[in-house]
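User: Just a sanity check before I run the rest of the batch. Below are the structure tokens for the first item. I only need the designed sequence back.
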């Protein structure tokens, strides 16, 4: 086989495997969508669980098919084929793979598999991992994507999902927490201050959907800090609610003469 024939064979093989990858991905997604429609139910937890597991399985299957395709293309050329056989036959390769399994890349993959099946987090859950809080947008082969309240995307290595404590705010209580710290002059009637803050919070947008409470926080030499906490629905604008809550509460405390002296 001359070089031109081998080049044509390489191109045909590459195109064929790309088509296989696309077909496998489309078939799995279409099949899952049909299965979901046939087994429609009102249990949102079950839906999130299946969607999390399936999305990760699709990525694994597509990655495996792609690796097989790449190997098929490389095996067309004697040079790359011989190198590949030599590497697979070498015990050094086994040591390399063992090292990788205990290191970052394959450790992230293994952690992703564990998360996909044990599911301490699911797609759409609001979670805190380390110092980062957000909604789980994707669980990829190597990392998990969180979307924060200010629309930032945090890429968390999957190994952190199995080595770091995870706070899942959706499984038990799906509401989001909004907090605002407010100063009150020392000696002011605290119950009056709490009442003023609660009345101010009633004017916040979506107040009817909020569960608001006011507690006493730290006490300084001249200031008592009140903490207004609101539990908001998942679709609430927490940044906007927190800002409006502070503005209204500070204005109300000022009108009541409860703010510390400047």
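Assistant: Here's the designed sequence for the first item:
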């Amino acid at each position: 086989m001359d070089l031109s024939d081998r080049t044509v064979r390489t191109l045909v093989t590459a195109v064929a495997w790309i088509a296989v990858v696309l077909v496998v991905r489309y078939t799995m997604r279409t099949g899952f969508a049909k299965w979901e429609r046939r087994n429609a139910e009102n249990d949102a937890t079950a839906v999130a669980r299946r969607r999390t597991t399936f999305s990760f399985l699709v990525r694994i299957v597509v990655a495996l098919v792609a690796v097989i395709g790449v190997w098929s293309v490389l095996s067309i050329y004697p040079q790359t084929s011989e190198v590949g056989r030599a590497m697979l036959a070498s015990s050094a390769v086994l040591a390399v793979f063992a090292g990788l399994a205990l290191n970052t890349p394959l450790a992230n993959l293994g952690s992703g598999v564990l998360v996909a099946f044990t599911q301490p987090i699911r797609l759409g859950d609001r979670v805190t991992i380390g110092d980062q809080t957000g909604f789980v947008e994707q669980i990829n082969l190597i990392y998990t994507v969180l979307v924060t309240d200010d629309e930032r995307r945090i890429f968390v290595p999957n190994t952190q999902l199995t080595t770091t404590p995870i706070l899942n705010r959706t499984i038990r209580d799906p509401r989001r927490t909004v907090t605002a710290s407010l100063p009150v002059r020392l000696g002011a009637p605290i119950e009056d201050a709490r009442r003023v803050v609660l009345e101010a919070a009633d004017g916040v947008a979506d107040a009817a959907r909020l569960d608001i409470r006011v507690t006493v926080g730290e006490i300084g030499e001249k200031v008592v800090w009140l903490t207004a906490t609101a539990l908001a629905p998942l679709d609430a604008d927490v940044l906007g609610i927190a800002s409006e809550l502070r503005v209204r509460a500070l204005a109300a405390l000022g009108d009541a003469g409860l703010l510390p002296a400047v």
